[in-house]
Amino acid sequence: MKTTVLASALALALSGSALAAQVPDDVTLAENQTLIWGVAGEVPTLDPTKSSDTASNKIISDLFEGLMVRNPNGDVVPGLAKDWEVSEDGLTYTFHLRKAKWSDGEPITADDVVYTLQRVVDPVTGAPYAWYLGTANIQNAKAITDGEKSAEQLGVKAIDDHTVEFTLERRTPYFPNMLTHSSTYPVPQHALEAFGDSWTRPDNMVNSGAYNLTNWVINERIDLARNPLYWNNDETVIDKTSYVASSDVNAEYNRYRTGEIDITSSFPLEAFDQIKKERPNELITMPSLATYYYLFNTEKAPFDDVRVRKALSYAIDRNIITDIILGQGQLPAYSATPPAINHFEPPKLEWAEMSQDERYQKAKALLAEAGYTQDNPLEFELVYNTMESHKKLALAVTSMWKRHLPVNVNLANQEWKTFLQKVLQKDFDVARDGWIGDYNEASTFLSYFSSDGMNKTSWGNEDYDKALDQALTVAEPEKRKAYYQEAERIFARDMPAIPLYFYTRSVIKSPKVGGYNTDNPNKLRYTRNLYITKN
């Protein structure tokens, strides 16, 4: 027996109204509906299956749509699916697709969904989010990514052209939430077979979202225009949108001030107070589902020694980072999961309860136990991607380390694509990282460090994995909290990464851009929900 899930947000979505720009009656729209976004650095890919960075995902979310999406408030609502059913045992989800079309006029079918997800888990694809379907507990996903079964054995099948059935290995109460991630967005099988790796070029791309790709100039800009075949095009307002790339926050801010950019991806940290004073109605600071880390490569000595990892973590004064270095409302992080996550409360951790002086003393003792002294200092490289804010933070942290510990640190900054490849290949000692939640549930942060997760640290712990597994047996979100807290305690005990701070999301937005929700902690803002006012 199956029961149809019809939440209030879902019921609203069935008419399309939850997925469209909500223009108040007293607002006059501008004749020119063009929106320009700033984006941090060059976008590595526009293939949803191969994306793993926030810049790519932002643009992909305008080009493609998932079975499930988020409305402006951050609630999960149907996208390409119009509704779904779940079995009483929670192991079978059946999604019914809208009668939507690809941008070339071909129908979007259940076969496209099956093809996409098989492509994600197939090791031949090399998808960075292949692990994600395993954490979603789709039947055989992990066995396929491990090379033990074929992609065709994935627990996803087309019942008919507009019905997709997912079979899960265990109850996953937040499964629809996970389908909002870009790695699960259906891609057009016929276009990939026709154009191969070049299918994402402007002349070849076939997509499902509100906008089509019209131009892509590497390291410069990406231009999109309304997709007239998008299923909810009648409710979309913005006609054209562009993404201007910059790894220099000062250059991006200058472009904003001259009107070349309407919404920034970032801005100079040192200008925050000035911007707040001069542009109070344009500076927006929002809650965020994101944590900033330094990752350890635990396969490499000396970072296979937990004493070394803890020493470096304890010797950082996070209050200086959040209050002085950053100063935008960020919170010190002593755990993996940010406080903005629904149904979560961090456990009391011994090291988090210490004074900073106590942490300094503990760090010195741990490093001495590991054999590092002024005569035999710890030497390593800290690598980060090119951006002034990352550099500023790395200099501050390095200064703290050198002041309190016998260490020699070499700072190395690299362009985004090179940095991403280096970290994914685990060719690093310590590396800057940040994790933005793929969905609003603690497992999105904790599963990142599981043995089957993206986990660039190479760390693994059976008890940690077990705690996450046990959380899945509990349907009620509040009751899952205890298992997540146990995972956090194990993380703190082994310290595979240094949590530094929990993000806030700050941007500068032109007053003429309407529809931008400032309470939603999820980072993505879909262009289709926005509009340009006349004044």
TrEMBL record:
Keyword tags: Signal, Transport
Domain Solute-binding protein family: 76-453
SUPFAM superfamilies the record matches: Periplasmic binding protein-like II (SSF53850)
CDD domains named in the record: PBP2_OppA (cd08504)
Source organism, top-level taxon: Bacteria
Pfam families linked: SBP_bac_5
Leader sequence residues: 1-20
Localization of this protein: Cell envelope
Family: Belongs to the bacterial solute-binding protein 5 family.
Protein name as it appears in the record: Oligopeptide ABC transporter substrate-binding protein OppA
